[in-house]
Input
Amino acid sequence: MRHSGTGKRIRTAVAAAAVLAVSMAFSAEETVTRSFPAEPGGRLVVDVDMGRVELISHPGNEVRIDAEFSREGWSRSRIKRFIEDFGLEFSHSGGTVTVRSDYGRGNGRSWFSSEKHPNVRIRILVPTVFDAELRTSGGSITVGDLQGRVDAKTSGGGLEFGSIRGTVNGRTSGGSVTVGDCSGDVDVQTSGGGIRVGRTEGNVRVRTSGGSITLESVSGDVTAKTSGGSIHAVLTKNPTADCFFETSGGGITVAAPEGLKADIDARTSGGRVSTDFPVTVSGEIDPHRLSARINGGGPQMILRTSGGGIRLEKSH
Output
């Protein structure tokens, strides 16, 4: 007896729905929650072995931690056992709230191993004025708008910072880095992604081995180095110290105020050097190199690339 195509599709859909129902029946999610009173000006320390860390500021006087664990195909009892093994610890002392986990420490386990783990998301609310030290070995770190110093480090994810009224220090071995507006110094580094920094009033130091660098508006001194992309930077003020722009895999474009006073040392083996600023060059003109003073000179601006051109232009 021949079955119609419609009948086959109906049976396939029913079977798929049954599989989905079974899968959903075995999915589990558990949340561990803690709250601590906290005045503005305090400090948060997070040091966990795995998980995505998200920090959000709010106008209240409280630190609230929600650690969420979820995985399809796991029962509630299994995920609860994992939470016990994860070893979350919370403490509050002298204005400092600490969140730690000891999963894998001393027992040979690691989130890098082939052992299956649930998804871990640690979401934390802190007062608007607060310092933060965040570390995770296996996930991204996101920080919303905050007034305070932020230090963030991860071995396995991207870094994203909102508007920070303070300094930003970030390190990651596996993702991109984005920084919004920042009133202090920015020092970020990644081995595996691009870097973008918004309006910054302090000095900027950025390094990546695998992506482009974009500095949208910088008032301080700059060090920008990449081995795998282009560099684009807009300077809003004259540097007070030497600045460095270096890439092996793209071009360099730096926009600066019309009144820029600097000593330019630009060299490329993969393109040409050009500038909007009037310069006086002594000796033979080399299209791949420029060594000159602008507006009487000032701090050195060193630009190096082996994979593209170099352009120094006036900002608008």
Summary: The chain has two domains: 26-133, 158-316. Confidence is low (pLDDT under 50) at residues 9-25.
